[in-house]
Amino acid sequence: MTGLRVALGLAIWLMAAGGSSLAAQPWGPGYFPDVPLVNQYGETVHLYRDLLKGKAVAVNMIFTQCSATCPLSTANLVRVQKLLGDQAGREIHFYSISIDPIHDTPEVLKAYAEKFHAPPDWLFLTGAPDDVALAQRKLGLWSVTDAEADDKHLASLMVGNEPTGQWMRQSTMDNPAFLASKLSSFLLGWQRQRGVTGEDYASVPAIEGLDAGRYLFQKACTACHSVGQGDALGPDLQGVTERRSREWLQRFIKAPERMMAQKDPIAVELFARFNQVQMPNLGLGDQDVEALIRYLEQPSATLPAQGAERPALATP
């Protein structure tokens, strides 16, 4: 099996067999390279011996200048960690490796982690370009579709239990309650879950009064915004359709990066006020934008509370 096929093979649950197969699992020091990486604190660690060996892990690829999936992924994973409670960092270790190690120095990664209020035990890592590229391939976080993406990576999260050889790939954009439950059950076993409920999407609380705008908001925006629940990384969006013109909202939701490039005064002020976290381009069409605005116009445009966690990206 070629290196590429092996990397792709990590995207599924590789070891579904009995104990003897697990004992002989190949996903160990002979497979994972022990390349050196540097975390946001300036400490040198090694991929296999320090980060993977004997641990349950969740790993994704990012770069701090990304204006599309990375901010959403990071904000969503912050929510996942809060739902996991003390399992995160102690039993399930989170790592984000930069695919732009030239720009993303430890200092830059530390600022990025702080911007999203990532917990201190979530390691953001950089290293020599060749070492990062090798780690990305061996972790199954590179594929042909990644190469075709503009930023050479997709919103993928590799979840693995190194001692048992169990690995699977999830989306970093999944519903956080579903993703937290999936990580806990897959990595630690159902009997060890504490405070994480729901096995699959069917177990996640239903969206009441579902319509297109509400669905889009919960799917694309809840990692980044609240309505009527207060500011977090960005402002509460309750009443935003009264504060901003419809034309401004249409342009900003459709192409926030263009508004920043044009130095729109409101966009610039929000960027500065909310810790320089830029609203990503969600790739929404005109009809989707209209549906979101109509939803936000409704007096009842609120979402059920999901605990204290609700990080938000800077928006109007």
Based on the model shown, name its key terms.
14 helices; single chain; disordered N terminus; Cytochrome Bc1 Complex, Chain D, domain 2; 2 domains; Glutaredoxin; 7 strands; 7-stranded mixed beta sheet
Global Rg = 20 Å
Number of domains: 2
Q: Which stretches are poorly predicted, pLDDT < 50 over at least 5 residues?
A: 1-24, 190-209, 303-315
Oligomer: single chain
Largest sheet: 7 strands, mixed
Would you count the extended β strands for me?
A: 7
CATH class of the largest domain: Alpha Beta
H and E order: HHEEHEHEHEHHEEHHHHHHH
CATH architecture of the largest domain: 3-Layer(aba) Sandwich
**What is the end-to-end distance?**
50 Å
Summarize the structure in words.
- With 316 residues, the protein is of the alpha/beta class.
- The protein has two domains: 200 residues, Glutaredoxin (3-Layer(aba) Sandwich); 86 residues, Cytochrome c-like domain (Cytochrome Bc1 Complex, Chain D, domain 2, Orthogonal Bundle).
- Helix content is 39%, strand content 12%.
- It is built from 14 helices and seven strands.
- It has a seven-stranded mixed β-sheet, sandwiched between helices.
- Helix 9 crosses helix 14 and helix 11 crosses helix 14.
- The N terminus and C terminus are likely disordered.
Quick overview:
By secondary structure, this protein is of the alpha/beta class. Helix content is 39%, strand content 12%.
